[in-house]
Specification:
three-stranded antiparallel beta sheet; 10 helices; four-stranded mixed beta sheet; 2 domains; Rv0495c; 43% helix; alpha+beta; DUF3109 family protein
Length: 188
């Protein structure tokens, strides 16, 4: 672990390799697990605001889940998340013709319907951020469904932090990322 400004960063994001391999995993991170995508407070409001524009990009079952639960949910612990369909799929997930899970929010963004890509937690994956009162913990989230992504990352020699560069810049800014690159050079 090392500190960058108000973040404590796991060296795993520099030392581990990762490149999403959707042809292998089929987007399992959007449909597996027992929780929705973590949301920041401002993102919950964004989801409410953009839902009418995202709705045409969603499956009916996702629309039904959102309209029953809301554009986001608040967990028993007070955390904000995207709603789920039957405790599994993210309500915003869609599927391509090959059965690969895709993000309806991101598709609306790609089609120019909205100007917000998707929740930053999704954009950052496999990095997870845990907010504390004095700092943010930046960790690599190892999940077996991403084993193929680790293999592809190793083949292509792409460390986690480079794979999620744009998301890290979105979350922490250009200067923070430049400092991260300097640390990575020293560690390698």
């Amino acid at each position: 672990m090392f500190q960058l400004g108000k973040t404590i960063v796991s060296e795993d994001i520099i030392q581990k390799d990762f490149v999403c391999n959707l042809s292998a995993c089929k987007g399992a991170c959007c449909i597996d697990g027992d929780a929705g995508a973590p949301l920041e407070k401002a993102e919950a409001q964004i989801l409410e605001d953009i839902y009418p524009k995202v709705k045409p990009f969603l499956r009916q079952i996702g629309i039904d889940a959102i309209e029953a639960q809301g554009a986001f949910i608040t967990t028993a612990n007070g955390e904000l998340e995207t709603p789920l369909i039957g405790g599994a799929d993210c309500a915003y997930v869609t599927f391509d013709k090959k059965g690969t899970a895709l993000c309806g929010i991101e598709e609306a963004y790609n089609q120019g319907a909205i100007d917000w890509k998707k929740p930053v937690s999704c954009h950052l994956y496999p990095i997870r951020i845990k907010e504390y009162s004095e700092f943010s913990a930046v960790n690599y989230d190892k999940w077996e469904i991403c084993d193929d992504a680790c293999v592809l990352g190793k083949e292509l020699q792409v460390p986690v932090y480079k794979f999620v560069k744009q998301a890290l810049i979105r979350k922490f800014g250009e200067d923070w990322y430049a400092d991260l690159e300097k640390v990575a050079e020293k560690l390698q």
